[in-house]
Amino acid sequence: MYNNVLVALSLEHGISEQALSAARALLSEGGKITAAHIHEPPNKQIMYYMEQNVVEKSYQKAEAGLADRLQSEADVSAVILESQSAGRAITEYANTKGIDCIVIASHRPGMKEFFLGSTAALVVRHALCSVHVLRV
Predict the structure, then answer these.
(1) Which pTM was predicted?
(2) Largest Cα–Cα distance in the chain?
């Protein structure tokens, strides 16, 4: 069982209930669950053509979406991580915050993932803690 579980949530995908359920099953009594959503701002080349407030608004929308999603989950704390790489953001957060298990979903890989690697694959390779992968 784990004391500090990080659940990687993507607000665009509907697997959060399954991921939170898995986290609770893996959690030790008295442990804590943190749900993280990765906000990926546009790269600098795209930002050149956008208003600065677009990024701020998308961040605020992500915050509101995560708060709304976790409204009935009193035992789960929330964090928004900002990065161009979801996998790196998850592993860096876990490696520096004492996370002892990451719960993350993964789809069945296609050819793209064999060459580039998926977020879940990157997390599995680089996390210093256990990783529980949900196949969706």
Answers:
(1) 0.87
(2) 50
